[in-house]
Design goal:
Elements lengths: L1 E5 L4 E7 L5 E6 L6 E7 L7 E2 L8 E2 L4 H8 L2 E2 L2 E2 H7 L2 E7 L4 E7 L3 H12 L6 H19 L2 H13 L13 H4 L4 H11 L5 E7 L3 H13 L26 E6 L4 E8 L8 H18 L4 H8 L8 E7 L2 E10 L2 H13 L9 H18 L3 H9 L11 H7 L2 H11 L5 E8 L1 H4 L1
Helix pairs in contact: 1-7, 3-8, 9-15, 12-14
């Protein structure tokens, strides 16, 4: 078993790749009562065009199938897996993102039993026509709920602008029409393709002993028979490298009291999936903290002018095949908000908030948040399991943050923030909502 000690965090990771390809990572945390485990497959909502395992031609599957599959994994012939976890004192959950699906539990005892339950239920699919059709109604209600959420509509509105061709613009849950087309055969095909042990990783953190825990996992996996691992072949639509396919502006009306505005920036140059990619993501996060953090002159000025309020926020999402950033907020003047954001972005290279003194402060704040987060088992497991940077991970972030210079920030700014990569989406109140 490979061990890596991170002196700056005083943490030791234990790693082992099993014979079937499953990657197991463990982080013992002395003094913790709780243990948290997450089993993740490198398969998310964007993976809708692929060659199914055992076949030779690409096939398209309905939007939302990865999320649908996640839901169906909990329903077994013998009953609901949530009840099994609950009986053994564990809280269980799952989630699907654009690029991955994760199944997890937390518990203070019966760790071996719960860990075996996690591995067994994810590795034993059970789909029937009746149960699939029943799930369509349940997920359909979930989709309708999100369609009524103006913040969700704002987020996907800007993604549709930035990625009109890429499946990223499809809602993770799909649409009522798309999930209506899902069949048990498609679910099994997706499962066989993406739920291969070699495409999955298991992260266990908390009150564990690594050698004993690994022995449990290995015994469980050795008792099962898996088909030979096969390469996964995905395909995505070709996008314009100069951003000419980006939709620059759209607006819609919803029954909201105040308008909403969001500015999006699409990364036109792909980020690498290695330590350099993690460093680039960190540089961009620091850049936005410098420009728009609540201690920046930009933010204070915009706040005093009434252009932003406490609803203002910015986010960066960087994963395989895409990366983008958003700046959004509630506002009575959506156009004024987006104009101000774009002006700051386009003139950022000479912005006075980009200076050595501010960078030192922002880096210190970032390290403080990171070190505080390292006390949260859920944060550690979910962040590590969603890693898109090869051997680099959140455990390298202390050193990465420390080595970043103002020149690095300025280089990342010039690479990422381009006029042709910008887009705007507004939500304005309907006439009825205003009256």
């Amino acid at each position: 078993m490979e061990t890596t000690h991170y002196a700056t965090l005083d943490e030791t990771l234990y790693r082992q790749t099993l014979a079937n390809g499953l990657q197991v990572t463990m982080l013992p945390k002395a003094g913790y009562h709780k243990t948290y485990a997450v089993l993740t497959t490198n398969y998310g909502s964007i993976d809708n065009y692929f060659i199914p395992n055992g076949e030779s031609e690409f096939t398209a599957v309905p939007a939302g199938i990865a999320h649908f599959l996640e839901h169906k994994m909990f329903a077994k012939k013998a009953g609901d897996i949530f009840e099994v976890f609950s009986h053994n004192g564990a809280n269980a959950n799952a989630f699907t993102s654009f690029t991955r699906t994760s199944y997890l539990f937390s518990a203070t005892d019966n760790i071996k039993t719960n860990l075996m339950t996690l591995l067994d239920f994810v590795q034993e699919p059970y789909f029937t026509e009746a149960s699939v059709n029943k799930e369509k109604g349940i997920i359909g209600q979930e989709i309708e709920m999100y369609e009524d959420d103006p913040n969700w509509r704002l987020f996907f509105g800007i993604i549709e602008n930035l990625y009109p061709k890429h499946p990223l613009h499809d809602d993770i849950a799909g649409t009522i029409d798309s999930i209506a087309k899902i069949t048990p055969e498609q679910l099994y095909a997706a499962y066989r393709t993406f739920y291969q042990p070699s495409n999955m990783n298991l992260f266990v953190v908390g009150n564990i002993e690594p050698i004993t825990t690994l022995a449990w996992i290995e015994a469980n996996q050795n008792a099962k028979t898996f088909p030979p691992a096969t390469p996964i072949q995905r395909q995505f639509p070709e996008e314009a490298s100069d951003g000419h396919d980006i939709i620059p502006y759209r607006v819609t009306e919803l029954p909201v009291k105040r308008g909403k505005s969001i500015v999006g920036i699409k990364g036109l140059i792909p980020a690498t999936q290695d330590r350099a990619g993690l460093k680039y993501r960190t540089e961009l996060n620091l850049l936005f903290d410098l420009l728009f953090g609540d201690s920046s002159q930009n933010y204070l000025k915009l706040y005093d002018q009434g252009i932003v309020d406490d609803s203002f926020g910015y986010e960066l999402d960087l994963a395989r095949t895409y990366h983008f950033a958003t700046l959004s907020g509630d506002t009575a003047k959506p156009q004024e908000f987006s104009d101000a954001m774009i002006s700051l972005l386009e003139k950022a290279d000479s912005n006075p908030d980009l200076n050595e003194q501010r960078l030192a402060l922002v880096k210190k704040e970032a390290l403080g948040r990171l070190l505080q987060s390292m006390n949260a088992l859920e944060y550690i497991a979910n962040t590590y399991s969603g890693n898109d940077f090869g051997d680099a991970s959140l455990f390298d972030l202390v050193n990465i943050v420390d080595e970043i210079t103002l020149s690095d920030i300025q280089a990342a700014l010039r690479q990422f923030v381009r006029s042709e990569a910008l887009s705007v989406f507004h939500i304005e109140p309907t006439a009825a909502a205003q009256s």
